[in-house]
Amino acid sequence: MSTTSMGPIDTASARRRLWTPDELAEYLGVTLHCIYAWSSRGGGPRVLHVGGRLRYRPDDVDEWLDRVTDDHQEG
Q1: 26: helix, coil or strand?
Q2: Is the dihedral of CA 10, 13, 16, 19 positive or negative?
């Protein structure tokens, strides 16, 4: 198993591990309160419920960032 900046990759399945709300908050530079508000009200990256816990796919987070930021658009 190898690692990335936010956790190990299972090389057998090529999946990055899911992020916790704490890891997402750190990655985005927002408060944990903000993460929980997004999960209850919407507006944040797609959230998964795994065994009653909130988890985030890193690829979903990156796609969401691309949608909500405009620095990737020409103009």
Answers
A1: helix
A2: negative
DSSP string, 42-69: S-SS--EEETTEEEB-HHHHHHHHHHH-
CA dihedral 60, 50, 25, 32 (to 10 degrees): 140
Q: Residue 34: which of 21, 47, 52, 46 has the closest Cα?
A: 21
Residuewise pLDDT in 10s, the chain (75 residues): 445 566 666 655 677 899 999 999 999 999 999 999 999 998 899 999 999 999 999 999 999 999 999 765 554
CB 64 within 8 A of CB 46: yes
Record the pTM.
0.73
Nearest Cα to Cα of residue 42 among 71, 70, 64, 27: 64
